[in-house]
Specification:
By secondary structure, the protein is of the alpha+beta class. It has helices at about 10-20, 65-70, 120-135, 165-170, 185-190, 235-245, 260-265, 290, 295-305, 305-315, 345-350, 370-385, 400-405, 425-430, 440, 450-460, 465-480; strands at about 45-50, 80, 85-90, 90-95, 100-105, 145-150, 155-160, 200-205, 210-215, 230-235, 250, 270-275, 280-285, 320, 360-365, 390-395, 410-420, 485-490, 490-495, 500, 515. The strands form 5 sheets. A 7-stranded mixed β-sheet has the order 8-9-10-1-11-19-12. A 6-stranded mixed β-sheet has the order 14-18-13-17-15-16. The chain starts with 7 loop residues before the first helix and ends with a strand. This is ABC transporter substrate-binding protein. Keywords: Signal, Transport.
Length: about 525
Amino acid sequence: MTASRSPRRAALAVAALVAALALSACGGSAAPSTPSTDPVSGGTLTFGRVASANDLDLHQQITANNAFAIDKVFEPLVAFDEQGEIGPWLADYEVSDDGLEYVFTLRDGLQFSDGSDVVPEDVVFSLNRHLELGGPLPLEAPIASIEASGDREVTIALSGPYTPFLSELASFSNGILPADFGGASEEEFFERPIGTGPFAVSEWDPNGDLVFVKNTHYWQEGKPYLDSLVYRFVADDTQLRQQLQAGQIDAIDTVPATNAAEIGATGGTVLSETPGWSTEQVFFNTQREEFADVHVRRAIAQALDRDGITEATTFGTAEVANALLPPTITYSADDSVEALEYDPEAARAELAESAYPDGFEVTLLIASGNAQRAQIAQIVQESLAKIGITVEIEQLDIAVFRERFFAYDFDFMLNSGQSDAPDPNGFITFQADPEGFSKSYWTHYTNERVTELMHEGRTTPAGAGREAIYGEIQQILADEVPYIPLFFPANLKATSEAVQGFAVLPNGSVRFQDVWLSEGA
């Protein structure tokens, strides 16, 4: 059986449909308030974030604190819109009938932020560098060649079929930079990077704030509207909200679910709530002998009331998760997967089949400054105590938290999985590929059948066959629970009433080229 469903699922689906009808691909605005006048150019917007950007190398980064700064500077050939639909961005494209050749034609007059022309050689250099480095979001497609095939044309040939290729290219990690770093050293370049994005870096403290200025050579006529954009580092989400309400900042990247209704009802502030591509989860380090035991993991899954956790900690802003993939991702099996139900008696029986029938002591790792995860951690602690598992909660600064799990130095943790594209391949690969960058999201989980299916999913054409592949993967993961999906959170952000055109993408990034400040702000 699956967990009970909330009526909110239908509401989000209706909202997404309305948005899809109202917005045109790659050019729409999901503003929380409807502007009564045409966009106004000028001004500075200060955006509060709970983590600073500490590295702008697009091929080496993955976490949101860096990714959503990088994508203001660099842009890919294709991109997805607010509904997750992929279309042309820096280039139009044509695909051969056999799906093995992609010809991209760069926009006429395309320039970098320093005023230099973007030429095919820049595309070749950028994508080849990504291929060579690999990085956390590697180009997995079987690329045989990348060639400049005309004055504005680049041809990419594949050695075999690869269904998610365009989805993969749409990632921020495939942005275009000048060939040979424009003559700078690699280190110098990424201190003040040059790209085609709407903004350029002006001032940057890797442990603090990041100041962007308008790219006056941006290819979208009249955009960005803002003269400058400031990423203000505020370590605590409570302080973020307080500074927004006090008028010290104009928008915030994170709204705790417990405060969403308050933000929406408070004069002077506007709540932005949109469907996303993330899943809040409990992750097990299967290198720990306790969590290498599938009976232990299954017991914990049955000891946790996902419905209760979701209701208590998300205040109607999230959906209970059965499967790994959010419903907004193609081939999500959330409505068909048979997830382990909340059943304390079954949990005790499952634990009795493990090598630890009398329980054990373990540490749950969480990032500090996140009230929601602190509450979830307490619920996990109390729930597992009832089946004989003693949990110590360890809270760390988010930077140290990341260092710890990147080094596999944890027992189990609370974190979220985030897709960077609408195709299921990226999410599944990052969380279930034992040979990938994250080694199954730092769990070291390995299942030969999942690995086999994962590779089949990349080459199977879109349709029922591919859907069945991802359905089977999600069911295996639900049975073996290397991680426990808890809920699918909405993207919750907030702005002052002066902020217009605030469009949030499903991955949680904001298209600030569309944002403007109403007069008098």
